[in-house]
């Protein structure tokens, strides 16, 4: 009998024993095409020799030193590399162990910034309905996923949640993309005016929504208008690129494609590519210097901040993404994947939308293409598709319908940046099989 506390108590997963390139292997020798990188983690695939060598070398030199006493060479180098490639005036990197930690730190940093600049009334966060920022209490409060929040409601912080920018669902008939982007962004201003702008500290959003909406990219101009509103009302813009960052959409930071830079940015997942648990929160010099000139101490912290071995892994991963031409590959193979999905499912009666950027692609499933009516959640369609795909040797990331019961189930695809044409064909074939077996 296992003593592991598993994700699901109703099933026993196979034991993973190996990984090579785009494939994972279980203890029976069965191979699985990892088309979601776990949850958009394994951007370099499995068994990457460069990253493994870098980790081993770091372990030989120094595994760990507490940041209350030391900094370390890999942490310094990783921070330099991230900032050299980061948008806007992002200038400082706070290295943590994962995405929830990065989101939690971002929320607390935003609050402390306003307190230290002498505006302690600013304590409210505005986020979006269809979003996920992590499972710790602050991050879960910011997230807008009803199912994840439901049973913890009494523990959650009071925050605002506006509609996401969701062209497939919320754009009006005949409305241009640009008009919709503007209208959707203006929901932030409306909420600010409703709650009183002087009480708001920040707006938080995923540039391309991952887990809760299946690679949902905004309409053009959306984030530019969001940035304007944030500046006008003196609130910080926090972008959560835990899933969509680190090259997944074809640029190192997803927000580059929207022409905006945040005040605080969260990354994780693809930063360590699964070789080590690592995340990061980046902030501007304005935020850092304000606290530096005040208390001089960010009142937060975890034991594994700036972990040298994790930082060495992150450094090797980001260097590989930049130096091996993988961003180009994400664009090229992302186009190939989207084209293959369009080809196969573009007219499928139950695939309402195929969307995304780069190698971050989502399919939204509907009971009826014309009305866009979702399937009954009781059917647990996403779970059936996941199981059928897994049986066929394909790992994809399905999510049940959310947002007030209006949206459909999604399948999220986030394969390694090294995916080849033959594997794209295999992915589409196996996904087609899983859909047919489940619908
Ligand atoms: N933020 C986003 C956008 C995510 O997708 C996730 C995880 O899926 C998180 C935060 C939380 O990250 P972690 O699971 O590493 O704590």
TrEMBL record:
Keyword Transferase found: yes
One Gene Ontology MF term: pyridoxal phosphate binding
A GO CC annotation given for this chain: cytosol
Keywords per UniProt: Aminotransferase, Pyridoxal phosphate, Transferase
InterPro entries: Aminotrans_3, Aminotrans_3_PPA_site, PyrdxlP-dep_Trfase, PyrdxlP-dep_Trfase_major, PyrdxlP-dep_Trfase_small
Top-level taxon in the UniProt lineage: Bacteria
The protein's required cofactors: pyridoxal 5'-phosphate
PROSITE patterns: AA_TRANSFER_CLASS_3
Xref: PANTHER family: AMINOTRANSFERASE (PTHR43094), AMINOTRANSFERASE CLASS-III (PTHR43094:SF1)
Similarity comment: Belongs to the class-III pyridoxal-phosphate-dependent aminotransferase family.
Protein name: Aminotransferase
